[in-house]
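Why this split exists: single-chain examples teach little about how molecules sit against one another. For that reason, every record in the complexes split bundles all components of an assembly together and asks for one structure covering all of them. Below is a record exactly as it appears in the raw files.
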Amino acid sequence: MRGEWQSYDAGQAYDELVTPKGQPRAVARSLINHLQKYAPDEMLARRNAADLCIREMGISFTVYSEAGNIDRAWPFDIIPRIISAKTWQTVSHGLAQRSRALNHFIHDIYNRQAILADEVVPADLILNSPNFREQCLSVKPSHKAWAHIAGSDLVRDRNGQFYVLEDNLRVPSGVSYMIENREITKRVLPELFLNQSILPVDEYPARLYATLASISPRRIVRPCVVVLTPGIYNSAYFEHAFLAQGMGAELVEGGDLYVDEDDIVQMVTVDGPRRVDVIYRRIDDDFLDPEAFRADSILGVPGLMRAWRAGNVGIANAPGSGVADDKVVYAFVPDMVRYYLNEEPLIDNVKTYLCMRDADRDYVLENIESLVVKPANESGGYGIMVGPHADARTHKRYRKLIEQDPRNYVAQPTLSLSTAPTYCDNGIAPRHLDLRPFILYGRDTWVTPGGLTRVALEEGSLIVNSSQGGGSKDTWIVE
Amino acid sequence: MLSRVAERLYWMARYLERAEDTARLTNAYSHLILDMPTGAEPGWKLLIDTIDAHVSYHKRYKVFNERNVIKFLLADVDNNSSIRHAIKQARENVRTARDILPAQAWELVNECYLFVNEAAPQSVARQNRYEFLEEVISRTQEIHGLIDSTVLRDQGLWFIELGQYIERADMTSRVVDVAAGAILAQTSNARENKSRADNIMPAIPLLWANLLKSLSATSAYRRKVGPLLGPTEVVDFLFRSSQFPRSIAFCVNQIEENIGLLRGPKGLLRYVRNTAYNVLEFDAAKGSPGDLHQFIDELQEQLAEIHGGCHEAWFELPDRSSGDA
């Protein structure tokens, strides 16, 4: 290794690109050899080019704050994260397996409830969950598919072993950034693509369309698929527009749709009403239909649940899918794989302590300083307490929270997340990261090659969420 | 196509046209001021007259000086007649109709927005103004070029053109109204007041030349009418030329054509045809400056009526709160 790469040291963590001895891993050799040739100002020039590119492409996300909503440029690190195709294959199979099990589970919960009767999963855990929607009971969506689009967060431990940290089954976002990150890398570091075979990622919108079309109630050649967005002020609006454009679908808001007297969903067009077959909704269950859920919602469509229950429209993800997206239910996914598929899980969960269990709770209360405590029902990294990074007062506060509402808390050992070389203000340094692949489930199952790598830009930080100062990297699966 | 999306494309086009036309107008006017003999300048108030923005102007400024007026037209972000506001609105509309337009359209509009935001505040001074305005014009032209060469020939494009020509007809008529009105007033003033006449009369052809220039009509006029500039010929050309793409007759014809392609309501189509007929019937040789002004006033009302007709035909969403009340 040469130049500033010589002093690169990932410490205890597994580094994605560099071995503990400081040599490039086989998959990263070509990349690091290339980057080593750059003088420091050359690296800076490439980074500036990337920043400019992001600004001009208008890749942004919205951060909510008390001072108002800010449209921020997408934070991007120019050094890609690389995984070998061989390693990825196992992970990919594991994710597909997981998605199959989760969909079986949701279908079971809203129909026979066999897994509860067999006491593999405690019934009260599910039936009393705020994510369990009575309105979905006895519905049988096409292909028994509920969570058509899942985004599972993966991390790697000290040995480089992959684990699933959580499954996002409601409205997971980030896939557009996965595609745009590749676009940026191609623009600012085109030389890197010359001598390697890097799996392309831009197939996603076409795959998404195929998945959505496969749940159309009408068997027609080009069913009418729409993307339902809460509107321009949503943090993921950029992505909603991106996906609609990529699929050639209409991007609609609640006000563009209505349900007619025959329980058919129509959209208001300049030629009059047009029937909608499939809705890829990017709004939460709560806001989907003021007749069925929150009456004060102005984002949704009155009567939508009626139309869906009557089988006149496909909704992705299906209402009620969130019942499996809960940090407590997560702990049971390996059991679901065994129960429904009669297979061993190909990809493991992170060891999870459920505070609702007496023994687990005692352990958590005693060892809170070394654990990561998470509320069962939050996303975006909110409400997470990282034991080793928190002070005694915070530990005390969380102990109290857990005792008050044990069902709502889980704890996991503090993982030493893997790192990758990241171009920071004072040169190239290791930063912690995770990976969010996307899994499509309709008539067929499909997993993105790689996914969105999120990186904690602050030294030592483990929080990768973009709303909390995280950035992202292009992710390469290399053959 | 969704009604909401159609409306956004329509407004995107209107705002882009507004930005471009305001840039042309300001540019031409800034040049005119340089050429005028001292004491004969028509004053900066005229620009505010043109865009009919007295109310919002007086919310911010007391006097009509160059700095205030230019700042108002270029850089005031909360003034809905400024270039900066128009580009911001165009971007908002593209942002929410991104799925219909080619991806590059968003990039161009976004770049234009970034440019205007950064450069507008520094472009009030004369030395930067010209460059800024030229850049606004060429960037908006670039966006239209992209749209013209990549957008499907279907409803989307027809709504874009509809918005563009309604806005352009409106702007052209305003420019003619105010500029021609001012020039004619100067001329008759000069005739009555011999002492000022020597100062002003030689400058009159220059004023007409600048009116053409502000609508980018100079060379078209020369080719179709000739090098001599007379009030009747200039007004007639800007009103009735069927070949010059910024004339009112041309714009109204385009509005009619696009409403036809969109299969608009018969009543609306009839109304537009009637407007086109009125424009062709206008005789610039007859009548006083007052007649011209009144005719343009009526024309602008008709354009507002056409806008209302389009809104009713295509953009209105069903009232969700209606129920059975």
